[in-house]
Amino acid sequence: MTTPTATTTTAATRASASARSSDAPSLTFAAIARSLIAGGVAGGVSRTAVAPLERLKILQQVSSSSAYNGVYSGLSHMWKTEGVKGLFKGNGANCVRIVPNSAVKFFCYEHMAHGLLDLRRTFDKDAEMDVLTRLGGGAGAGIVAMSATYPLDMIRGRLTVQKSAADAAKSGGANYRGIYHAFTVIAQKEGFGAFYKGWTPSVIGVIPYVGLNFAIYETLKDQTVKMQGLRSASDLSVFAGLVCGGVAGAVGQTVAYPFDVCRRRLQVSGWVQAGVQAGGPVYTGMFDCFRRTVAEEGVSALFHGLSANYIKIMPSIAIAFVVYDQLKIILKPEIKISAG
User: Fold this and answer.
1) CATH pick for 26-331 out of 1.10.10.10, 1.50.40.10, 3.90.1200.10, 3.30.70.100
2) Confidence grade of residue 15 (pLDDT, cut at 50, 70, 90)
3) 10 Å Cβ neighbour count for 307?
4) What is the pLDDT of residues 177-201, one digit of tens each?
5) Taken in order 95, 38, 139, 56, is the CA torsion positive or negative?
């Protein structure tokens, strides 16, 4: 015979399990679509807002020219030599890449973080969302999103640093006319393997970068909610979200930056139309790139462009997280990361 106490306990257990399962992301088509839209829009808005600084960072990473030293002098040089278009050169390709990348990254993070939490709860039923779980979810999401859109990143990098049309004509070459033209030319002349040049350091770099971004951002939000006595993270002000995102972006980028430099150099390695590295070194791989860069230019070369990137990445990551959170409130994709 079942006692009232046992019945009550069983009901409570079921209610607790139901509450926990309700935290898990919804997999309905509508929820998936809304989540992907929120992530894609967040990525496009954030990257366009900092496009001039993004291009300056790449030029500093692969160029030995002093014209790009410093944020103000570098932006001024681009403005004087190429005008407004120069400031946003390559941004179209960047948005084509970042929109699906951001959509997949945010979507995968939500599911991977909850998947890891569910796995932990098979061993510890009282396990809660913590920094390590978020770090693992972010790292996994970063790898999937980066790998899925890497060819677009490679093309974007080349469009960003290629010579001006006049210089290309003088050297007997021709510029890529756009994303599709770049894709066909690279495939014909270099093979499809060229689209994944620099992939290895990218994978290694994206693990701490995206992992730390999500882990620090979500953890800082939780702590801020507790400090301000709010009901949930959705009650946080936009300013508080921007601060949390800025801190997360700065920490993640500092750790992963040398791998980003290596990735860019490998992407333009041996490519004669690179206006900043024509006739430059041809690297055999990631380790050769690191070794030669340090030997020939010093350790500081692995951090070329980091100052410009701090100015870029902090608002970029902050805007992306805040736009995503706000769109989730508007679109209600039924996906959330909770502390429980």
Assistant:
1) 1.50.40.10
2) very low
3) 16
4) 888 898 999 999 889 888 998 898 8
5) positive
Residues 6 or more apart in contact with residue 189 via CB below 8 angstroms: none
Going by pLDDT thresholds of 50, 70 and 90, the confidence category of residue 175 is confident
Place of tokens 């009232």: 4
What residues contact residue 255 under an 8 Å CB cut-off, 6+ apart?
A: 208, 209, 212
Helices of type H across 122-178: 131-161, 165-170
How many other C-beta atoms can be found within 10 angstroms of the C-beta atom of residue 36? 18
CA distance 252 to 274: 28
What pLDDT, on a 0 to 100 scale, did the predictor assign at position 68? Answer: 81
Residue in this structure with the two tokens 């620099």, named with its chain if needed: 198
Which residue type does 272 have? V
* Cα of 195 vs its chain's centroid, Å: 18
pLDDT for 62 beyond 80: no
Residues 181, 248: Cα–Cα separation, whole Å? 36
Report the candidate in 226, 213, 251 with the shortest Cα–Cα distance to residue 339.
Answer: 226
Closest CA to 147 of 116, 115, 104, 181: 104
**What is the pLDDT, as a whole number, of residue 119?**
93
CB neighbour class for 121 (10 Å; exposed up to 12, middle 13-18, buried from 19) = middle
Distance CA 54, CA 249 (A): 14
CB 29 within 8 A of CB 334: no
Is 299 exposed, middle or buried (CB count within 10 Å of its CB: 0-12, 13-18, 19+)? Answer: exposed
The structure tokens 């050169």 sit at 89
The number of helices, as runs of H, and strands, as runs of E, in the chain is 12, 0
CA distance 316 to 42: 10
Asked if residue 136 lies in contact with residue 116, where contact means CB atoms within 8 angstroms, the answer is yes
